[in-house]
Write a structure and sequence with these properties.
The chain is α/β, with parallel strands linked by helices. It contains 15 helices and 13 strands. 44% of the residues lie in helices and 15% in strands. Helix 1 packs across helix 15 (386-405) and helix 8 packs across helix 13. The longest helix has 20 residues, at 386-405.
Amino acid sequence: MNKNKKILVASFQSLTANSGAGMARLGYYLSEVLDKKGILQDFIVYSKGKFTTPFKSSPVSSLSRYILFVLNKLNSYLHFAPHKFRYWQEHIYDILCVSKITADTGILFVTQPYLPRTFKKAKRLNIPILFIPANPEENFIRNIIIEEQAKLGFVAEDAYTYPKRIALFNQSINYVDKIIGSYPTVYDTYSRSAYKGEVVKMIGHIKPDFKPVSITEKTASTGTFKIGYLAHTVALKGLHYLLDAWKLLKKEYSEYDLQLYVGGKIDTTIENYIKANYKDLSDVHYLGRIPDVPEYLKTLDLFVVPSLIDGGPYTALEAAHYAIPVLITENCGSAELLSRNETGCMIVPIRDAEAMKEKMAWAYNNRNAVAKMGMNAKRNLDTYRMDELITDIANYLEQELIAINNR
C-alpha cells in the first residue's frame, strides 16, 4: 500500500491566473497551503489558461477548453435553460474527473457535490470524500423555494428545483464522508438534513478579492435617505418582502424622504408578480443591470439583503467594503461576519416585512449611528483573515491524511 498518499482537490469552476472563479477561489488558496505542506496531489478545475500556478493544477481534461467552447456555441444557438445547461456541464465534468482518482489519492476534497461517478470510484478505492459547500443543503433550498412559489401563486423551475439536478445531488451526497460547514447556514441546514455523514463546523467566509478602498471616516447623510438592493432576483431573494416592508414604511411614515433603488435582473415570474402587486408603490426605482456596482453602492445609505436563504451573499460584503451598513436576514451566512465585534449590520427574520420596516425607519432617524455601523461593517470585513479558515481546513485535512497513511 502507498504510504505517501496525498490530497486531490477538485472544483467545478475554472482557474484564473491569481485565484479562481466561485469556490475555485477557496480551492486555489487551499491547494497552495497543501502544496507547501507537501501533501497536494493536484488541483483539478474545469479549465485553465496557459499560465502556471505556484502549485500543481490541471484542467479536468486537456480537451475541456474545447468542450466548453463547443457547449457555449451550442447554447448560443439553442438557448438552453441555464439550470439545464449547467446540469449537463456537471455531468461532463464528472465523467472527465473519474480518471483523476488514482492510487496516490489519499483524500478527495471537493467544492461541489455533483460527482457520482467520481465518488463511486473513490469509494471503491476506499478514498474518503470531503465536501465544502458554498450553499445551504440543496433539498432545504428546494423546499423553501417551492413553499415560496406556492405563496406567490406561480411555479418556476430553476437549478434548485430541477428534478434531475436534485436527484443527482441526492445520489452524490450519499457517497460523501464528511461535510465542512463554513457558513452558519450551511452547517445548520446540513446538520438538520437527511445526510448521514459527519458535518464538521468550521465557521469562516470566502472573502472576495475586492480592490482596496481606504475609508477612514463616514459622514452621516442629510436629505434623501437612499436604500439599495442588488441581486439577480428570483423568489429566493425575497425582494417582494422588501417591497412589502416599503409599502408599510411609506404608509406609516409618509413624511420621510426615502428612495429605494432596486438593481439587477428580475426573472419574469417575479417581475410579473411585482407589476401586479406593487405597481402603485412610490419612490421605488428599478435600475436593471448595474454596470458600475461600486459607484452604485457609494450612493447608498443602507443596503438590504432580504434573502430567504443564502450561503454568503457577495453583495452584502461588497456593500460593507464601501462602508455601507447592511440590513440582512438571519438566513444569510454573511450576517455572521458583519455582526462580529461592533456590528456592521442589522439582522431580521426571513419573510418579516414588519421587522424590515422598523429597521429602515430606525436607520432613517439615526443617521450618525448608521454611518458608524457602515464603518463597523468595513472594519469587520477588512480585519477578517480568510487565510485562517484556509489554514484550519488544511490542518484538518493533514491530520486526516496522516491517519490514512498510518493505517
